[in-house]
Amino acid sequence: MGLSKENLKGLILALVSSAFIGTSFIIKKQGLRRAAVISGVRAGFGGYYYLLEPLWWVGMITMIVGEVANFVAYAFAPAVLVTPLGALSIIVSAVLADLILKEKLHNLGILGCIMCIAGSIIIVIHAPKEQPIESVLEIWNMATQPAFLAYVGSVIALVFILVFHFAPRCGHTNVLIFTGICSLMGSLSVMSVKAVGTSLKLTFEGKNQLIYPETWFFMLVVAICVVLQMNYLNKALDTFNTAIVSPIYYTMFTTLTILASVIMFKDWDGQSGGSIMSEICGFVVVLSGTVMLHATKDFERSPSFRSGAPSSPSSLSARLYPGNGEVLLKQDEENVSPPEGMCSRRQELY
C-alpha cells in the first residue's frame, strides 16, 4: 500500500520531530542536573531552579521545535501513523545518553533500536489514509460522541487518582506514576492538537475556522494538557534513569493515543483486517524494541552482569532507582538502609 501525498508530508515531519525530541531529553536532563547541583533541590522533589538554568531552556526550545513539527504532522496524517514514529526519538535519546550521559547502551539495546525502526517501517507501509475533514465542527462532533466522552471521563478520573493519591506516596519510587500522568494527558492533547492543526490548515486554505469557539476550546485543552505533561515529565526525568523513562513513556503514550484516535477519528474504518493486523504487529515490534532497550540499557555497567552472576534484588533496585544510580550503588556497597516509609523498590518495577 503506497503512501498518499498527505501521509508522506506527515511522515517527514514526524521523523524531524523525533530527532529534535530525542535530543531534547538529553539536553533537558543535563540542565536538570546542573540546577540540582546549584540549588540542592531536585525537580523530582519540588525544585524549580531549573527554570533559571539556560541549558534546560535550550532543551525546551529543542523540544518545542520537535513538537511543532509533530503538531503539523498531525494535520496531514492520522495519529495511527504519526504517534508510533515517536519510537525513533527513543533511539536518538538512547544513543545520546550513551555518548553524553554515560548511560550505557548494551549491544542488545542496539538490536532494540533496529526493532523500533523495523516496526516503524511496517506501520508506515500499512498506515490508513487520512479522512478528509472540512470543518472543525466535524471534529467537535467526533469529540462529543458517547464513546469518546466515556474515554475522556476515564482519563480525567485516572489522572486525579494518580496526582492526588499515588504521586505523593509512590511517585518517586514507581516510574509508572509520573509517566502514567504524562501519557494519559498526552492522549487527550494529541486529539486536541490534531483538531487545532486541522483547523489552522483549513484556515490557511481559505476556510476560516477561528470564528468557531470549538477551535479555541481545543487550543485551551492543548495548553492545559501540555503544562501538566511537562511538569510531570520533568519530575520523571529528574527522578529516574532516562533509559527507563523514555521507553515506558513512549509505550504508554502511544498505546493510549492510538486508542483515543481509533475511538474519536475512527482511523481503522475502511481498512482491511490484514492492514489493521499489520499495523498492530508493527506496533508490537516497536514495543518489543523499546522493552529491550529498557531491559538491557545498564547491563554492561552492572558488575554482576559482567561476571555472569544473577543480579541481587538490591543491585537491581540500585541500577533502576532514581537518577543514574551512583549514589544508591554506593549506599548498597556501604549497606546503608533505605529511608523508611518508601514504597517497595522491588514492587515498583513490576
Automatic annotation (TrEMBL):
Residues that span the membrane, as ranges: 6-27, 48-65, 71-96, 108-128, 148-168, 175-196, 216-233, 240-264, 276-296
KW ATP-binding (keyword) present: no
Topological relation to the membrane, as annotated: Multi-pass membrane protein
Residues of the signal peptide: none
Main localization, broad class: membrane
Gene Ontology annotations for the cellular component aspect, listed alphabetically: early endosome; plasma membrane
GO molecular function: magnesium ion transmembrane transporter activity
Assembly with partners or alone: Homodimer.
Chain segments carrying region Disordered: 329-350
Any Pfam family: Mg_trans_NIPA
Keywords: Cell membrane, Endosome, Ion transport, Magnesium, Membrane, Transmembrane, Transmembrane helix, Transport
Family membership: Belongs to the NIPA (TC 2.A.7) family.
Lineage: Eukaryota, Viridiplantae, Streptophyta, Embryophyta, Tracheophyta
Organism: Clitoria ternatea
Compartment annotation: Cell membrane; Early endosome
Entries under InterPro entries matching the protein: EmrE-like, Mg_trans_NIPA
UniProt name for this protein: Probable magnesium transporter
Function: Acts as a Mg(2+) transporter. Can also transport other divalent cations such as Fe(2+), Sr(2+), Ba(2+), Mn(2+) and Co(2+) but to a much less extent than Mg(2+).
